[in-house]
Amino acid sequence: MRRSSFHFFRALTRKVCPFSAALLCAVSTALYLTACGAGTTGKTQTPGSSYSAKVIYNFGASPDGYGPAVGVVLDAKGNLYGTTVYGGTFGEGTVFKLAPNGGQWTETVLYSFCHTDLNCADGSQPTSKVTLDSAGNLYGTASLGGLYSDSFCGSGCGVVFKLTPQQDGTWAETVLHTFQGEDGAEPWGGSLLFDNVGNLYGTTEGGGASDWCLGDLGCGTVFELSLSANGQWTERPLAWFYNNSDGDNRHTGSNPIDGITFDSDGNLYGTTRTGPSWGYPGGPPAVGEVFELGPTPSDLWSQSWPYDFQGGTADGATPTGGLVVDNTGAFYGTTSAGGSSTLSPDSGTVFKLTLGTNNNWNDTVLYNFCALPVCGDGSHPMGGVVLDQSGNLYGTTLNGGVSDGGVVFKLEPQSDGTWTQSTLYTFQSVGTGYAPFGLTIDSSGNLYVVAAGGAAGNGVIVELVPKVTQ
What CA–CA distance (Å, rounded) separates 50 from 275? Predict the structure, then answer.
């Protein structure tokens, strides 16, 4: 089963604003400043761009990679690393490096994935971020391919890989694990996560003990890879996801694709874009859940569901981009739909989850986006948020802004408990990028954004540098 991963983001949340709402927003400036630009606890957005933007790389034709679908990661020297779904020598995706060079950037394809038809077992079509270890090795997942290409996955269930730099400047790939179905299938999105003893954790969209989801491909897993003394990696599923079609009305979501996050106690948290399976007519919509996994002496970890999204104007719907945690244990994330913007509901939110004194998790909507061009604040955030050392949140929206090409935004906490939203940059043309879906921040506050479009239409990376105020 092969899917066009790169176009998933464009197809998922593309919206058309109602003419009546656009007319209403245009009539009253005062009205749109509160109805379009403000969140539940937010203030109006700051107009204009406070960043200068430069396209630092346009992806070209093979053997270059094309179709980046996630953000990049930074090393200590300021190099950027990422993946493309397509392109490379065999057309099945790449891992690339961008190195700063006197104000310019030099791209190197570190590895080209091979097609299973060529009897390759290295995986194909990587759709997740890479993870760096302290020695400079890269770890990631490929959504398809591997040894078991004749399995029910069709083109292979995907792999976990490692790239190791060599003395001659090349990089060697090692497959750490090939998924077979019950242990997981199609790792798609997010990134791998290290614990403090070197174990790796991740999610798969399919596979597991249930085959009711994704056209019988499975409802997904959370997995662990541990390194033994002999240098071999061993995989085990920590959790299997289910669907209400299994017949026992499980209160669960399914098909996690946005990665996971540790809390300070070693528990894992993540989101599903579907669920819960309420199992009765007229129940709340299945618009996404937050899950928690806790270590146990057995192979499978304990599983609980701290929060169910309600959708509509109650809160957000379809959480996307995973979760980040601050030093108080609060989690932050985005939903691509839902929200209570007065003139443009269902345009997405930024939310905060905090643990209350009654051991229940409470959801606060920090900002409601507005899809109308006159609002200018963007709509349908897909990539989650990034937290800086001052507690500010940064993210991107797939759509919205004055040209409906998406925006880069910042949310800043205020002393009165509200959050101020600023639109830092608005994407305005296909040639310079549109539909951003991944953001990284460096120690100087520069932002690196992955987006569609570009000179060749194969994707771009945009650098945003804060403007110096006199």
Answer: 39
| Domain CATH for 141 | 2.120.10.30
What is the predicted pLDDT for the residue at 213?
A: 77
Inform me whether the pLDDT recorded for 3 exceeds 90.
no
Q: pLDDT, tens digit, for every residue of 233-259?
A: 999 999 999 865 444 445 578 889 999
Tokens of 470: 């006199």
pLDDT exceeding 90 applies to what percent of the chain?
Answer: 65
pLDDT (0 to 100) of residue 149:
56
- The reported pLDDT for the residue numbered 117 is 75
- pTM reported for the whole predicted model: 0.88
261 has pLDDT over 90? yes
The structural domain count of the chain equals 1
Phi-psi region of 433 (alpha: psi -120 to 50; beta: other; left: phi over 0): left
Query: CB-based contacts of 283: which residues, under 8 Å, 6+ apart?
Result: none
Bridge partner list, 367:
350
Neighbours of 31 (CB within 10 A): 14
pLDDT in tens, 453-467: 999 999 999 999 998
| Residue 28: predicted pLDDT | 29
Partners of 421 in the β-ladder: 411
Domain holding 274, by residue range, is 5-466
The reported pLDDT for the residue numbered 400 is 93
How far apart are the C-alpha atoms of 423 and 45, rounded to whole Å? 7
CA distance 252 to 70: 26
